[in-house]
């Protein structure tokens, strides 16, 4: 009986030790891993691409969108422009996001009313064009935007729990970062009750630079509404010249 009890205690002790080694409260190391992911991502200075957006509701009905995108990175500063090209009822709609010197500005152009709308901080949690991505989701994700809580390591991933400093819709966020490539595979978004309310899955990674792999497909699942939105990239061009006017209100209004 004593030997069995000793064995149980030994197994419990070993399991606890392994768990402690896997999950550590080490914000500095978690930040350094996230920053390595950032540095590799920033090796792509510019990108042009075509995207397909498929929105699927809880009954399995789908809506399809075609988009063109332009992006530019310069360290912690970034600019991105998305223009809808199809279907006709959204053609010409544009979304511009600029992050400079730690300040983010987002603007939406609606051709039906011919007006540019500035997205306020209170609107950052709203759905983008009826999809499961919010305006916050489409903004930049830099290490300075987060406070890092803990790090968990397994054979395949670094899992990092972080708090988005300025977010009103997510209390905390978990990132699964592939150890081999430092690419984000999965993101889980939590509410104040520590429940996962959304999940972002990435797949079909392609190598865009010497040390950066980026997904060709990203799917955002809204677990509360049983919905999802899939984005698929094609015709990618990286580190090419993009005219400065693209990332202006002129670029928003001019469209394709």
Provide an overview of this structure.
By secondary structure, this protein is of the alpha+beta class. It has one domain: Clam (outer membrane lipoprotein receptor (LolB), chain A), CATH 2.50.20. The chain contains three helices and 14 strands. It has a 14-stranded antiparallel beta sheet with strand order 1-8-9-10-11-12-13-14-2-3-4-5-6-7. The longest helix has 21 residues. The N terminus is likely disordered.
List keywords for this structure.
outer membrane lipoprotein receptor (LolB), chain A; 3 helices; 16% helix; 14-stranded antiparallel beta sheet; alpha+beta; 14 strands; 256 residues; disordered N terminus; single chain
Structure at a glance:
This protein is an alpha+beta fold.
From the structure provided, what is the oligomeric state, counting identical versus distinct chains? single chain
CATH arch. level architecture: Clam
- How would you state the average pLDDT, rounded? 90
Low-confidence stretches: 1-21
Radius of gyration over alpha carbons? 21 Å
**CATH fold category name:** outer membrane lipoprotein receptor (LolB), chain A
Total domain count: 1
Please outline the helices and strands.
Elements: H1 2-22, E1 23-24, H2 27-41, E2 46-56, E3 62-74, E4 77-86, E5 94-100, E6 103-110, E7 115-118, E8 146-153, E9 157-164, E10 172-178, E11 184-190, E12 196-209, E13 212-222, E14 227-238, H3 249-254
Antiparallel strand pairs: 1-8, 2-3, 2-14, 3-4, 4-5, 5-6, 6-7, 8-9, 9-10, 10-11, 11-12, 12-13, 13-14
């Amino acid at each position: 009986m004593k030997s069995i009890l000793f064995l149980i205690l030994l197994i419990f002790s070993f399991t606890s030790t392994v768990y402690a080694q896997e999950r550590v409260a080490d914000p500095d190391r978690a930040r350094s891993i996230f920053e390595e992911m950032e540095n590799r991502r920033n090796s792509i200075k510019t990108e042009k691409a075509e995207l397909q957006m498929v929105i699927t509701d809880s009954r399995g009905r789908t809506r399809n969108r075609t988009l063109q995108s332009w992006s530019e990175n310069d360290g912690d500063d970034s600019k991105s422009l998305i223009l809808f090209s199809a279907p006709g009822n959204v053609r010409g709609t544009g979304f511009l996001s600029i992050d400079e010197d730690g300040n983010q500005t987002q603007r939406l152009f609606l051709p039906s009313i011919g007006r540019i709308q500035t997205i306020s901080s209170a609107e950052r949690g709203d759905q983008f064009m009826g999809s499961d991505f919010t305006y916050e989701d489409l903004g930049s994700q830099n290490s300075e935007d987060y406070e890092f809580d803990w790090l968990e390591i397994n054979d395949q991933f670094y899992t990092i729990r972080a708090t988005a400093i300025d977010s009103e819709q997510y209390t905390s966020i978990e990132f699964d970062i592939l150890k081999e490539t430092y690419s984000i595979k999965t993101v889980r978004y939590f509410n104040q009750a520590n429940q996962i309310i959304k999940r972002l899955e990435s797949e079909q990674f392609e190598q865009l630079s010497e040390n950066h792999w980026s997904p060709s497909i990203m799917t955002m699942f809204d677990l509360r509404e049983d919905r999802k939105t899939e984005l698929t990239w094609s015709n990618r061009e990286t580190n090419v010249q993009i005219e400065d006017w693209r990332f202006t209100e002129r670029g928003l209004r001019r469209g394709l």
